[in-house]
Amino acid sequence: MAVSGRTIRAHQVDVFFAVLFFAFSSTITPGPNNIMMMSSGVNYGVKASLPHLFGICIGFPLMVLMIGLGFGVVLSNQPWLHLTIKVLGVLYLCWLAWKIASSKPTSLEGSNSKPFSFLQAAAFQWVNGKAWVMASGAVAAFTTMQGQFYQDVMQITLAFLLMSLPCVGSWLLFGALLRRWLNQPTTQRGFNICMALLLLGSVWPVLLEIVQQLNSN
Questions:
Q1: CA–CA separation, 83 vs 206, rounded Å?
Q2: Alpha-carbon distance 91 to 85, whole Å?
Q3: Residue 169: which residues within 8 A CB-CB, separation 6 or more?
Q4: Are 205 and 95 in contact (CB under 8 A)?
Q5: Number of domains in the chain
Q6: Cα–Cα nearest to 22, from 159, 118, 132, 127
Q7: Mean per-residue pLDDT over the chain, rounded
Q8: What's the CA gap between 203 and 91, in Å, rounded?
Q9: For the residues 117-133, what does the mean pLDDT come to?
Q10: DSSP letter at 126?
Q11: What is the pLDDT of residues 148-183, one digit of tens each?
């Protein structure tokens, strides 16, 4: 029995490190959160963007936990609700892209605009297409139904909690470092337009999924 217990624990450790690697690779890659985080670092600096950062780092693992504990089942039984969230998410991201592209270059020196708050960033995860793919994919890939399901969900949540701050935070720091080279209005405007286009590009796969889902109906 002791050997069996050690074997189970060793397996759990192996799975946890696999989840950590998945969390790192999926969180560090470009997506709406990271693109917006870098843009916030450029336009507002690190200190003002910290609530946005912590909102992502807490909000996304919480989303993973809720999907793992049953919210995903509700959405799978109500596909129209999931589709509605996707459509609203695409529209919201398009609006954000427009706001970024049209922001005034003088914002580096101070303006009336503000970065995301903690609650705004946490709530944004639920309309973020990449966040849905990451959360549902992790729960589907790294959970089993042999009595360890809820423990697996907690491990996945912990992995994303550990990886979010260094991964998303690196995008914020990179954006903040770019501030010194983006003091010129022309270069800052060009940067904001590029970030807006990248944000729109991250929406494209979700838009295709929505079209395919509507066609299948």
A1: 10
A2: 10
A3: 53, 57
A4: no
A5: 1
A6: 159
A7: 80
A8: 9
A9: 90
A10: G
A11: 778 888 988 999 999 999 999 999 999 888 877 776
| Mean pLDDT within 59-81 | 80
**Residues 58 and 166 sit within 8 Å (Cβ to Cβ):** no
Rounded Cα distance, 76 and 72, in Å: 6
Question: Position 84: which residue type?
Answer: T
d(CA 18, CA 50): 29
In terms of residue numbers, what domain contains 167? 2-216
- Rounded to the nearest 5 degrees, what angle is found at the Cα of 50, between the Cα atoms of 49 and 53? 90
Percentages of the chain per state (helix, strand, coil), in multiples of 5? 90, 0, 10
How many other CB atoms are found less than 10 A from the CB of residue 142? Answer: 19
DSSP state of 106: G
Distances (CA, A) of 178 to 29, 192, 216: 19, 12, 45
- pTM of the predicted model, to two decimals? 0.75
CA 177 to chain centre: 22
Kindly report the number of other CB atoms within 10 A of residue 204's CB atom: 11
Q: Where are the alpha helices (DSSP H) in 112-184?
A: 118-124, 129-141, 149-178
Across 191-215, average pLDDT: 76
Token pair 């695409």 is at which residue?
90
Q: What is the pLDDT of residues 13-52, one digit of tens each?
A: 767 888 888 889 889 888 889 989 998 898 888 999 999 9
